[in-house]
Every structure is written in structure tokens, then in C-alpha cells.
Amino acid sequence: MKRIHICKASDIPLNGMKSYDSSLGVKVLIANSGDAYYGYQGLCPHQDVCLDEGFFDGATLTCHQHLWQWDITTGDAMGLAEAPLERFQIEHEGGDIFVLQASALRVSALFKGASDAVIARLDALARREVHASLSTLYDVGDAADDLYILESGRVEFVIGREDRTSLAGFMLRKGEVFGWAALLEDQPKRIAKAACIEPSTLLRLNGAEVLRVLAEEPASGYGVMRQLASLITKHLGSKGEK
Ligand code: FES
What we know:
- The chain is of the alpha+beta class.
- Helix content is 19%, strand content 40%.
- The protein folds into 2 domains: 2-101, 3-layer Sandwich (Rieske Iron-sulfur Protein); 104-238, Jelly Rolls, CATH 2.60.120.10.
- The strands form 3 sheets. The protein has a 6-stranded antiparallel beta sheet, with no helix packed on it.
């Protein structure tokens, strides 16, 4: 697990908060509540508003734009809020605050149960990409070569073309996999558009390379393919390809 220095604990006021640009590629909000420190996404999950411009009483964080609120101990949505905050695991040591970055592969439901050796091989193949808000990752009809794992941020899916489009939902949790058509031999083209709706960090893996690793490690490969089948069942019924 990688440790990323964010700030000095003394930089954060008692029962206060500040946000920082980080090498994670996203803003990180550090909040103090008594003796405890918490790390969350720095931008509101509703729109790209800095959360440290909002209100914080040591327990509840409120975005000043439309008054969404969150419990600072969990990041859970309260009141009007329609989405939780993404939480970062942090460490407070020697007066410094660090964010601990686990590989998104390790927390991904798709690769749950894969051996350490397989995760290490896939990690070595993965390219980490940082995308700005509103950037398109792929569009309908594009070649489905790569799959993605969300490390931080938010990605939205749109199905259809021009005036006949519909939202296919969005994801928030670290480790969510999308673009998994890259693991299907008979699905060479995208059937949905994927775009970042806030600055996002992604792991990008070539589907053919992933399949090669899984074929060489049949025990892990079988587990991943079973998990892929349940992912497809879950999303195709209601929302379409991610
Ligand atoms: S932008 Fe934060 S609640 Fe709307």
C-alpha cells in the first residue's frame, strides 16, 4: 500500500477542514473532529464545488451550494444528499497526515479472490490515467479494447445516440470496473458512452492482456470469469454495458 503525504496535522484547525491537491490526481479533503482526522474527496459529488468552502461543525459537513450534507465519521449522505462521499484511508503519524492508497485492483469485486501473483501481474500491466471533468473515455461504436477500474472520481454512462440517449447510472466506489466488454470476444464495439463527470483517476488494462494472464492462472481466471458473469447479469438487465 502506497503512503502519500498530504499535510501537517497542525495545518487543520480543530473541528475544521482543508483540501489539498494530491498526487492521487484528485483533491483530498482532510477534516478534524476532536482527536480524529478524516480524508474524503475534495469536490462535492453533486457538482464540482470545493467542499472546504462549505460548512463544518466538527460532525456534519455541508456543501454551501445546495446544502447536501454528510456524516464526517463515515461519509454517509444525510438530509438532501443523494450520494455518499468517497473516503480515503488516512494515517496520522509524527504530526503528518498521509493517505494510504491500496491498488484499486485489490478492492475490485471483479478480481476478488484472485491470487496475489495475479494481482501483481495485472498491476504491472495497468496504466494509471488521470482525466479531467467532462472528458470522454469512449463513445458508442469505439473498439472495446480496454477495461477500466475507477480509483477515484465519477464516471457517467449514456446509452444511445444524439437525441435518443439515456443515462445508464453512475458509479462512485473505488474498485468499480467498467468497459468490461474488452473481456468478451464477441463484443468488439462499445454500446455506451463513458465520460468523467469530475476529475477521475483510473486504472486502464488491455482486455487481451488480462485474458492472457487469466488463462495462465486458471484458478484465479475461473473466479474472475464467474464474477464477470454476475457483473454482466446485474448491469445488462437494467442499464446496459459499462
Ligand atoms: S454542488 Fe454541492 S450540493 Fe450541489
